[in-house]
Amino acid sequence: MRLVKQAIERDGSGTITLFPEDPEDMWFTYNLIRPSDLLRASALRRITTESATGSTSSTRVHINLLIRVEKLDFDTQSSQLHVSGRIIEETKYTKVGQWHTLDLELNRNFTLEKKDGWDSVARNLVKEACDPAKQADVWAVIMQEGLAHLAVLTGQRTVLRQKVETTVPKKRGTGKQGDHDKALEKFFQTTLDTLLRHIDLSANLPILLASPGFVAQAFLKFILETATRTGNKSLMGQKGNFVVVHAASGYLHSLNEVLQSPEVLARLKDTKYARETKLMDTFMNLLYKDDGRAAYGPREVEQAVEKGAVGRGGGILLICDSLFRAQDVGTRRRWVGLVDRVRETEGGEVRVLSGTHESGKQLEGLGGIAAMLTFPLEYLDGEDEVEDEIALSNGNTAGEKT
Amino acid sequence: MSRHKLVKALDLDEELDDFDGGADSDYGEEVGAEDKEHLRLGTAKVRDVLGPEVSITDREIEDSLWHYYYDVDKTTPKKARKQKVNSDVNKSDDFFRDSPWLNIPEDRRGEILIEPLYPRGRLMGGSSKSDGAPKSKLAALAAARKKKENQRAEDGQNATNSVALLDKLSGKPRQGKPDCASDISSPKPLIAITEQTMNEQPRKYPRRKSKGLKSPQDDQPAKEAFKKSDSLASPDVDKQPEITPAADPSVFAQTIFAAPAVSQQHDLQTSDRYVLGPDTYAEFDFAGPSPDDVVTKAQNTKRPTQKPVKQPPQPSSGDESVNAIFQGVGVVAIEEPKVKGKNLDVMAEFERSKPKNAANFVVIGHVDAGKSTLMGRLLYDLKVVDQRTLDKYRKEAERIGKASFALAWVLDQGTEERSRGVTIDIAMNKFETESTSFTILDAPGHRDFIPNMIAGASQADFAVLVIDASTGNFESGLKGQTKEHALLVRSMGVQRIVIAVNKLDTIQWSQDRFDEISQQVSAFLTTAGFLAKNLALVPCAGLTGDNIVRKAEDPQASWYTGAPLISLLESSEPVTRALEKPLRMTVDDIFRGGVQNPLSISGRLDAGNVQIGDTVVIMPASQTASIKGLEVDSEPSDWAVAGQNVILHLADIEAKYLKSGDVVCPPAVPIQCVTSFTVKILAFEHITPMHCEVHKGRLHAPGRVTKLVAQLDKASGAAVKGKKPRLIKPGSVARVHVEVDDPIPLEQGGRVILRAGGETIGAGLVE
């Protein structure tokens, strides 16, 4: 993303013109644009004219439209962003109040004006998006016998590209082992075919093969054997890019473990997802210590911030970017206010985690927000939350069954 | 009345034949030398005239010559005609086909009556013109039949056959008319006899002449005559097999045995059918089951739940009935379901079979504790695995430098397992002792394969915990999978655990070490929830086989006086099973059961029973399948009940609908599939709202703990009052809410394991 023009006043009002360069920028844009913002972008609009005789003709025209955003739609697989809203500026072809859906395109400028001004989170996002240091994508194949998840990790997101599932018979008595081995080979073949369909080998990206047990190793062996057998030079050339890692299971959430493994960290130390994963891990460990220095959940964290526990000297606020995508302006303002307070008033650190990465999902599970506190706080999450379920479940006295 | 008529009415043939039998010698004496010479010459002449193809004995010719007083001309036609008569009368066999033995309908009696008279008249009268005379309906019929018969028969009827037929004919009067026979027993020329008979039956002569067979005044004697022949037929039936033993069953026999009930219903149409009969009638040879049996069998094999198949109407005659039955059978076969069940009362069958105690046990323990080797040794010592196989394994294991793994190879059949020397998946093996039949579920010890171990443990009745006694390994095991496995099996409902302290041979059977281990393990297991009385410890050595099937031979091990491992296994109490509950079976594996069974599933019946022919529903795919084959412990069976390890061969379902971990249930009471559920859980690790995998037997699904509902009191199970827990600590009990991405089959009371990051975070009961 390139920042073409920035005209932000002191009060936060103003416009920013951006030039998206790669699909990843669309994700930034998706996080940047909120409903009721003003967006100016080039559009292709079909104009229908009616002649005096009543015959109609329609033409497509390229025009610059200014719309007030009502709805955003992001296609994760193709990284396309569709923004629909009402036209608020009359042009030669359109009237005010007509609907239009802008399909934001790569390499075309768009100008955004925030209705409520540019808050800190939005400005940081622009800054981050325009960081010229590009982060390489990483492919990951998380697998177990009969199940594989193919995902691509970009700086901002983890995108599941394909899930492969085949039935692999278990080992049976003597002489029937062939079925298992054959099925396993077929599973490998399917996974490899799927991988080659999605991946651009010329990009020379690292490919993580992760699995419990020996599946990933066997898969790598299979890949190299296949490459040799079929004389696939481009696949052979990837030999150095494969990294075999241990994972607890073949499910996507095992990526967390994968990204923390020494093999991966050695290669991808400074990537955003590796940092985020590390951060989440640190938080979870703090939580498990249960010394009151970890807080999660909106109410708990807000209370902690109020008490000044997320401040200088190690206070870190973890917040998931999905919270800022709230449709409700008030909700967004609440989180932005919290972030601003931690950052500016308290002097703590704020980390915005991508909700599509596994670490972000982990955070989402905790309510989307968590904090590492500078001093222990007991009995957070006041008495206002009455737990009806507890009263209800008192009748269940089946004794210890587990 | 002319006397000639009387003569004509007389059954001369019968008289003659009787005479032959009765008074041969007398007759011979009467013939003088001159007569003999005449007879010889006459016979020669007659033979010339008749030609070689006519098979008649000299005696007959001589008789005729005697009768006609050496008139060769007259004799010849008589003989020739007699032959004809033979074949005609022979037809009467066919005629009786499908007619009832008794209660003959009026109309048929009348028609049948005529036949014996007809040829006789011709014989007696010597009228060669009879062929040209107008024929009665019956005569025409007989002629037509004869023609047909001739066409069918081989050219040149062989002599023995005709003689036999002749005998057959002659047999009738001999037995049936003793009065006549005695009358003519005196040695007289035939003419005298004829005259005598004429006197007796004076009225029959003119009838023959007129050939008005059905004139009203004829009815009475005709019926009488028929009655006579009727009674005569009986000995014929008895006699026939003697005469032509190699022949087909007689038509009479066929008529009598084929459809006696049917023949009661004869009506006017029978004669028409009779005409058509021989060509259309499909002969029933009694070789197979009777048509009725076929129908009955088809009816019996039908399942009662099926819509009753329309019974083919009881046919009124043979050909129709046979066809209808075949059609009926065809209909039955079409409407039958693809898989025929025996519709057994499985519970009754189970009670009757008086099964041996059956027990599944899972072998658990830390990686490299020697689980597979111990079990391999057990199977080898019990002669389940023969020496040859083991030698083969030993040789192969040595080749890849893993000689000590030979015993483990008995269970580790996988290529990967062998090359790496580690169990990856559950191995199932069966062995029997005198009292119990056991199924070993050899679990992998490696932490990566705990999902497989869970699958095995979910099928187990009790557990064998193998502990590596060697220095350091016990300690690391207790922190590792020894602990995790023990907790897992306990939370999956296993009550009883046998602890095999293994590899004692490596520490010189140190009793101190054993006691130390026993103490620690017992303490740990007791805190894990096992009752002390359900724990049994045995020191053993898997590699050498000490204290496994036999007592340890090592003198250093003499301090142990208890029973070897096998006895401890046998002391397991039989487990009661939920036989009456609806069928539940978790699919363990989906595979190709062979050429006949392209799709088979294996697993253990958790509840209920199943039999061949049942229709089941596979959840969560909600696809029905029918069971076309069933194996219990690899032996074909018709049914299976809860607790048994079965293989179901499925039909009417595609493999894509099946996943391991699916649940097989009856269509009437399918298991519910849920995407979110509340579970009372014992935490192994810290639990926060987090991602996890939900395991239940073979089933595993990605999910999340979405909400920590309440912390529960460990003793009472009541919720701890106060605020909502923000973290569940290891060892505590809590109620949590879990969501999964895709619906999974889960019932209340089901035991689930939650795992995250390769560790078991908790195990609990679905509420």
From TrEMBL, chain A:
Protein task: Component of the Dom34-Hbs1 complex, a complex that recognizes stalled ribosomes and triggers the No-Go Decay (NGD) pathway. In the Dom34-Hbs1 complex, dom34 recognizes ribosomes stalled at the 3' end of an mRNA and engages stalled ribosomes by destabilizing mRNA in the mRNA channel. Following ribosome-binding, the Dom34-Hbs1 complex promotes the disassembly of stalled ribosomes, followed by degradation of damaged mRNAs as part of the NGD pathway.
Localization (cell): Cytoplasm
Any single GO BP term: nuclear-transcribed mRNA catabolic process, non-stop decay
One Pfam family, short name: eRF1_3
Protein name: Protein DOM34 homolog
Domain eRF1/Pelota-like N-terminal: 1-131
Names of required cofactors: a divalent metal cation
Keyword Acyltransferase: no
Any one Gene Ontology cellular component term annotated for this protein: cytoplasm
Lineage: Eukaryota, Fungi, Dikarya, Ascomycota, Pezizomycotina
Keywords associated with the record: Cell cycle, Cell division, Cytoplasm, Meiosis, Metal-binding, Mitosis
GO MF annotation list: metal ion binding
Family: Belongs to the eukaryotic release factor 1 family. Pelota subfamily.
Keyword Ubl conjugation: no
TrEMBL record, chain B:
Keywords: Cytoplasm, GTP-binding, Hydrolase, Nucleotide-binding, Protein biosynthesis, Translation regulation
Stretches with biased composition (Basic and acidic residues): 216-241
Region (Disordered): 124-244, 286-321
Domain of life according to the entry: Eukaryota
Keyword Protein biosynthesis attached: yes
The reaction(s) this protein catalyses: GTP + H2O = GDP + phosphate + H(+)
Single GO cellular component term: Dom34-Hbs1 complex
Pfam family, one: GTP-eEF1A_C
Tr-type G domain mapped to chain residues: 356-579
InterPro entries associated with the record: EFTu-like_2, G_TR_CS, GTP-eEF1A_C, HBS1-like_N, P-loop_NTPase, Small_GTP-bd, T_Tr_GTP-bd_dom, TRAFAC_GTPase_members
An MF annotation (GO) of this entry: GTP binding
Localization of this protein: Cytoplasm
BP GO terms, sorted: cytoplasmic translational termination; regulation of translation
Family membership noted in the UniProt record: Belongs to the TRAFAC class translation factor GTPase superfamily. Classic translation factor GTPase family. EF-Tu/EF-1A subfamily.
Complexes and interactors: Component of the Dom34-Hbs1 complex, also named Pelota-HBS1L complex, composed of dom34 and hbs1.
Official protein name in the record: Elongation factor 1 alpha-like protein
Source organism: Letharia lupina
Lineage: Eukaryota, Fungi, Dikarya, Ascomycota, Pezizomycotina
